[in-house]
Specification:
237 residues, alpha/beta, Purple Acid Phosphatase, chain A, domain 2, five-stranded mixed β-sheet, four-stranded mixed β-sheet, 14% strand, globular
């Protein structure tokens, strides 16, 4: 089972399918539980292709990123296409997604958070604004956030989810807020992407309680692409 395999984390890809293939090559799918942190689309020319690679890779799990949310919003509401293009959306990707209803359905079912057996919380954005999707019952906040996120997406309120998932990373600079988030979710550490770091490997904060895997993989999104190892690699023990 995938849960028994070592975890491989893949940060923001943003349509750079060539670098995605290169980053995954050292890690055979059958040997790894691959977890994609979202934002596979936009900026690069092959966003839908990257989605399909992630979906079809054996033993993989894919989180919803804010750019997937914006793309689904543009698909459902033509008035949001301009906003989406302004954040890197590619019109040919939207046309391709429109023809693939099964991929649309798969995207809408992606979780926002993933809790691993070792107490690691995996999410797209290094921010605790996800708490806005928690109601009064906080017995299982991770499941509640995922359930309510899907309900919001079904209702077509992609603007709300965009706001929830687009905040700047705060865990690196606010350890107290990080600790409150870990306590709320019953986690020992959090892994995320979304906010680029500038190191050659995933950035560790506060003794490893927060780990950032957005190392600037996409050549279309970043003026100077960083090493593949900054965005893709095994989850530390």
């Amino acid at each position: 089972m995938a849960a028994e395999l070592p975890a491989l984390i893949v940060g923001d890809v943003h349509g750079d399918i060539e670098r995605l293939f290169a980053a995954l090559k050292p890690y055979p799918a059958q040997d790894w539980r691959t977890i994609f942190l979202g934002d596979l689309v936009d900026f690069g020319a092959f966003g839908v292709g990257c989605l399909r690679v992630a979906r079809d890779r054996k033993n993989s799990e894919v989180l919803l990123g804010n750019h997937e949310v914006a793309m689904l919003g543009a698909l459902a509401d033509p008035s949001r296409v301009g906003f989406w293009v302004g954040i890197g959306g590619q019109l040919h990707d939207l046309d391709e997604l429109r023809k693939d209803e099964s991929l649309q359905a798969w995207m809408r079912e992606r979780p926002m958070l993933l809790k691993l057996d070792d107490g690691t919380l995996v999410q797209h954005c290094g921010n605790d604004d996800y708490r806005m999707l928690i109601g009064d019952d906080r017995s299982d906040p991770v499941s509640e956030i995922n359930d309510n996120g899907r309900l919001v997406l079904e209702a077509g309120d992609t603007h709300l989810l965009w706001n929830v998932m687009s905040g700047k990373g705060i865990f690196a600079a606010q350890p107290e807020r990080l600790d409150r988030w870990l306590e709320l979710t019953g986690s020992r550490r959090v892994v995320f992407g979304h906010t680029p770091h500038h190191e050659s490997k995933p950035a560790h904060y506060h003794g490893g309680k927060a780990i950032n895997f957005d190392g600037g993989l996409s050549r279309a999104h970043y003026r100077r692409a960083q090493p593949l190892s900054a965005s893709v690699g095994p989850l530390p023990p």
